[in-house]
């Protein structure tokens, strides 16, 4: 199971924007943590009797909405989240991506969101969005800089996995890819691979968090946890024919005269390489 006991739910972080803690002064000490704030709802991957709280369905839907052509479902957001989205899509995206990083920057993220909201309140209705966007771009502010740099790291990993995931068909014709990303990005890959595969069934497994994103037989994509017995089973090795196709593809597009191992490691770090059939 994927434990996030030390993290706050994205929905809770949006709720914290509404709390009266002043413009700059904010601490998570004494605030409502994810495990308490969501105790009344079963996590998306929660099991009866489990001690761990899991990612909520609302959080996963918000992440997926960031990369959906329809955008996030605003009715599912807390009021402060909707307000942030209305003022600045850039601020909303940075806020959500910072949470997806799973890094311990919850306080910086909430302070960033509050600064955007406060900046807009100081202006008239016509200038609210311009003021919010100015606050988002203020890299001289340490909280803003932290959030923007972190969000950039998350976006970079999403782009990388769009190109580096390697799918192999199992005996039933379901295409399966495995990965272990640094950040919680699985829902952000949903729209891309739904369009790419059409009605072909596919599964992406996050081995680090024991999560599975799948779309089978053209149905609605589903995000779920992987139980320990299922996860402990060794993955099926790609067939010799399929692996040969990947190696042939790599050899065809590779230009040996421009081989640059250092640059290759920069764009394709070692943590991704073990999942690449051609290597």
- What is the mean pLDDT? 77
User: How widely separated are the two ends?
Assistant: 30 Å
Strand runs, count = 5
Q: What are the secondary-structure elements, in order, as H or E?
A: HHHHHHHHEEHEEEHHHH
Contiguous low-pLDDT stretches (5 residues minimum) are: 1-6, 21-53
Radius of gyration: 21 Å
The secondary-structure class comes to: alpha+beta
What gross morphology would you assign? globular
Q: Treating each run of at least 4 consecutive H or I residues as one helix, how many helices?
A: 13
Give the fraction of residues assigned to helices: 40-55%
User: Beta-sheet strand percentage?
Assistant: 5-15%
| Spatial order of the strands forming the largest sheet | 1-2-3-4-5
List the main descriptive attributes of the protein structure presented here.
279 residues; alpha+beta; five-stranded mixed beta sheet; 5 strands; globular
If you had to describe this structure to a student in words, what would you say it looks like?
The protein is globular, with a radius of gyration of 21 Å. The chain has a five-stranded mixed beta sheet with strand order 1-2-3-4-5, with helices on one face. With 279 residues, it is of the alpha+beta class. Helix 5 (89-100) runs antiparallel to helix 6 (106-121) and helix 6 runs antiparallel to helix 7 (128-136). Helices cover 46% and strands 8% of the residues. It has helices at 10-16, 34-37, 57-66, 79-87, 89-100, 106-121, 128-136, 142-164, 190-197, 228-232, 240-253, 261-267, 270-273, and strands at 168-169, 175-179, 202-206, 211-215, 222-225. The protein has 13 helices and five strands. Among the domains are: 10-157, no CATH class; 239-279, no CATH class. Mean pLDDT is 77; it is low at 1-6 and 21-53.
